[in-house]
Structure formats: structure tokens, C-alpha cells
């Protein structure tokens, strides 16, 4: 904090509750084959709960551009209008296709920091590299992936053959996948959901040592906040796909391809990250219905100040009516 902002960490538990409600709302749509309904349910629950929080929040990076409601769009203001001014980075449903198809790895996720402290960027692709605490400070996203793999292995005291790199399974990553395998290291491919996969590099119980992928920029910002809380690191570069996206990046003050470090993503230690599992993931268990209208949820709450991270299991009734009949 620079001393002029009102603290935001006391909003942590409310923010965890926001993710829990969004997760419960979208869990009704697991396996129903309908991405839009699942996303819409998460977004509506999140918006409703965020608007009850004592804050003056603005979405600085999210799903939609400008006023693209019904998504939580860049520039949307949220909260009661009293309390601290906060920047919000949000993805109500990280992994819409995963929920629609009933697959693992989906989350409801959000991060906040005092106004002006989170990266403002359009919803373009971002190249991302992430590691846990042991290798934080050793990466350079402008260097070849092989160099970063070697640097991470050295920091972790591992042989290259003992290294596992998490990479999204996409044709655009073919070269990266080949580079890692040629070096003798392992690739853990994932279909979607790079928030949980990048954060997993900072959790000792997972196999991931390094994360590399080109995915969504909003996911990059929320992951950077989580990794800050865990002592890890994320570096990125915006990768606009066309002239319009390029123009939007520049308009928002971020040069395409320019390397972004932790202090570009987050300019305050006073930040909060919250995520609730919708389906199972490396990070969190998914939503379970334990009785009619009662849900068991698993949430990660990270507070940047003092780097405190909590994993919480809660039993709660959802805001939405029990809706097994929705599908
Ligand atoms: C990425 C990744 C996300 O979707 O945005 C990906 O960051 C989109 O990639 O975690 P494609 O355009 O290749 O589908 C997610 O996997 C889920 O939102």
C-alpha cells in the first residue's frame, strides 16, 4: 500500500462468500452441455453478492469489454458505494466448457486490490510463465522457454528429467511442448483452466514445477494475485490477435508483447484472492450437494499482507433455489 488507500484485506471473507455463491449457482449446470447458462448463473450470483459488499469497486479486467453486460465487464462498478475503492479482476466461471462437459478443473475466481493497483488490460490472450516460491525471481519471460525450464530446475534443485511443466493442450503450444519433452522434462497437459494450473506450481502437493501457456489475460491477473499470496511468481506478455485488440491494449496503457512482472500485475501487498472449486481440481474440491438445498464448498482465500493463505470448507445453503430440474 502507498498509505493513501483504504485497506481492502478486511473484505476477504465476503469475497470468499462471493465465489462460493457463484460456484454453487453454476454447479447446477455441471454436465448440462450449456456453457452460457453455467456462466450466466455464476455471473448473476457474483454480481448480486458483490453489490452487497461495502466497497466502491470497479472491474479492471474481466470477461467483457466496456459495457458488455450481462458479463462482468471492464469498467463496471460494483459494491454499496461506501468503503474502500477497489480494483477487481474477475472470472465468475473459469472453465465454462469444463462445467458444461462435466469435467474437472473449473473454479469461480476473483481478486481485488486498492484502486489503481491491479493491471488494467483488455480481455486478450496473454503468454504466461509461473512458478512457486523456490523459483520465484529466477524467470525471464523474454528468454527462451528452455532457459526458464533450466533456471527453474536449478532453483528447485531438480534434474531436468524430474521437472513437470503444465501446458494447455492447444496447437499454439506445439513448439513449447516439444521443447520441454526434448529437454527430457515432462509435460502435464490440461484442457482448460489455467488459473488452477498456474497456482498449483506454488503448492507442494502437486506435480507441477513450472507453468507455461498462452491463455486469457484476466486469468493471468487473478493468478498473479494468488501467487503473490503464496510467494510464487507469474510473468506475462499480452498477445493481441488483431489490430483492434492491439489498439485496446495501447489505449489501456499496456504495450503488446512487453514483459509484465509481479509489480505490473499488482502494485500493493494489500490484496485478496478468492477461488471456489466448481468441479474438482488440483487446487480445490468441487461443489457437493449434501442435502436438498445444502452444499459443501471448498475455497482458497489469499491475503497479500503477511502472505496468508487459507483453504476453507463450508456447508451452506445456496442463494439460488435448489435446481436439479434445471438441466
Ligand atoms: C484460456 C485459459 C483459460 O480458456 O483463456 C482458455 O486461460 C482459452 O483458450 O483458463 P482457447 O481460446 O484456446 O480455448 C481457459 O482454459 C478457460 O477459460
Average pLDDT score: 94
CATH class of the largest domain: Alpha Beta
| Helix-strand sequence | HHEEEHEEHEHEHEHEHHEEEE
**Ligands bound here?**
7-O-phosphono-alpha-L-galacto-hept-2-ulopyranose
Write down the domain tally.
2
Q: How many strands appear in the DSSP assignment?
A: 13
Radius of gyration: 19 Å
**Cα shape:** globular
Named at the architecture level, the CATH assignment of the largest domain is 2-Layer Sandwich
- Spans with pLDDT under 50 lasting ≥5 residues? none
Percent helix, as a range, is 25-40%
The tally of helices reads 9
The CATH topology name of the largest domain reads Fructose-1,6-Bisphosphatase, Chain A, domain 1
Structural class: alpha+beta
Secondary structure blueprint with pairings:
Blueprint: H1 12-27, H2 35-50, E1 56-61, E2 77-78, E3 85-94, H3 96-101, E4 107-114, E5 125-131, H4 145-156, E6 164-168, H5 174-182, E7 186-190, H6 194-199, E8 210-216, H7 217-230, E9 233-239, H8 243-251, H9 262-265, E10 272-277, E11 288-291, E12 294-303, E13 308-316
Parallel strand pairs: 1-3, 6-7, 6-8
Antiparallel strand pairs: 1-2, 3-4, 4-10, 5-8, 5-9, 10-12, 11-12, 12-13
Helix pairs in contact: 1-2
The chain binds 7-O-phosphono-alpha-L-galacto-hept-2-ulopyranose (VTB).
Describe this structure in words.
Helices cover 28% and strands 26% of the residues. It is an alpha+beta fold. Helix 1 runs antiparallel to helix 2 (35-50). The longest helix has 16 residues, at 12-27. It folds into two domains: 9-116 and 271-326, Fructose-1,6-Bisphosphatase, subunit A, domain 1 (Fructose-1,6-Bisphosphatase, Chain A, domain 1, 2-Layer Sandwich), CATH 3.30.540.10; 125-265, D-Maltodextrin-Binding Protein, domain 2. The strands form two sheets. Strands 1, 2, 3, 4, 10, 11, 12 and 13 form an eight-stranded mixed β-sheet that branches. Strands 7-6-8-5-9 form a five-stranded mixed β-sheet, with helices on both faces. The structure holds 7-O-phosphono-alpha-L-galacto-hept-2-ulopyranose. 7-O-phosphono-alpha-L-galacto-hept-2-ulopyranose (VTB) is lined by residues 94-95, 170, 192-194, 215-216, 219.
Amino acid at each position: 500500500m502507498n498509505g493513501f488507500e483504504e485497506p481492502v484485506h478486511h473484505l476477504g471473507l465476503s469475497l470468499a462468500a462471493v465465489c462460493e455463491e457463484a460456484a454453487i449457482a453454476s454447479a447446477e449446470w455441471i454436465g448440462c452441455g450449456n456453457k452460457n447458462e453455467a456462466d450466466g448463473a455464476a455471473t448473476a450470483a457474483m454480481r448480486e453478492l458483490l453489490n452487497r459488499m461495502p466497497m466502491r469497486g470497479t472491474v479492471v479486467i474481466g470477461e467483457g469489454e466496456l459495457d458488455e453486460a450481462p458479463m462482468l465487464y471492464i469498467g463496471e462498478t460494483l459494491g454499496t458505494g461506501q468503503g474502500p475503492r477497489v480494483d477487481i479482476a474477475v472470472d465468475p466461471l473459469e472453465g465454462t466448457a469444463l462445467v458444461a462437459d462435466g469435467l474437472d478443473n473449473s473454479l469461480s475466481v476473483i481478486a481485488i486490490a486498492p484502486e489503481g493497483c491491479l493491471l488494467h488490460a483488455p480481455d486478450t490472450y496473454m503468454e504466461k510463465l509461473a512458478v512457486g516460491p523456490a523459483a520465484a525471481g529466477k524467470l525471464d519471460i523474454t528468454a527462451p522457454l528452455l532457459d526458464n525450464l533450466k533456471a527453474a530446475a536449478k532453483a528447485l534443485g531438480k534434474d531436468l528429467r524430474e521437472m513437470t511443466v503444465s501446458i494447455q493442450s492447444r496447437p499454439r503450444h506445439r513448439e513449447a511442448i516439444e521443447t520441454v519433452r526434448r529437454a527430457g522434462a515432462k509435460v502435464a497437459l490440461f484442457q482448460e483452466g489455467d488459473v488452477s494450473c498456474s497456482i498449483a506450481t506454488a503448492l507442494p502437493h502437486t506435480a507441477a514445477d513450472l507453468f507455461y501457456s498462452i491463455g486469457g489475460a484476466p486469468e493471468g491477473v487473478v493468478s498473479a494475485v494468488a501467487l503473490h499470496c503464496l510467494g510464487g511468481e507469474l510473468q506475462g506478455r499480452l498477445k493481441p490477435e488483431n489490430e483492434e485488440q492491439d489498439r485496446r491494449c495501447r489505449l489501456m496503457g499496456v504495450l503488446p508483447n512487453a514483459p509484465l512482472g509481479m509489480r505490473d500485475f499488482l502494485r500493493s501487498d494489500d490484496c485478496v484472492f478468492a477461488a471456489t472449486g466448481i468441479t474438482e481440481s488440483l487446487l480445490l474440491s468441487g461443489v457437493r450437494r449434501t442435502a436438498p438445498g445444502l452444499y459443501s464448498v471448498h475455497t482458497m482465500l489469499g491475503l497479500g499482507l503477511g502472505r496468508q493463505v487459507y483453504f476453507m470448507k463450508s456447508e451452506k445453503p445456496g442463494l439460488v433455489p435448489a435446481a436439479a430440474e434445471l438441466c
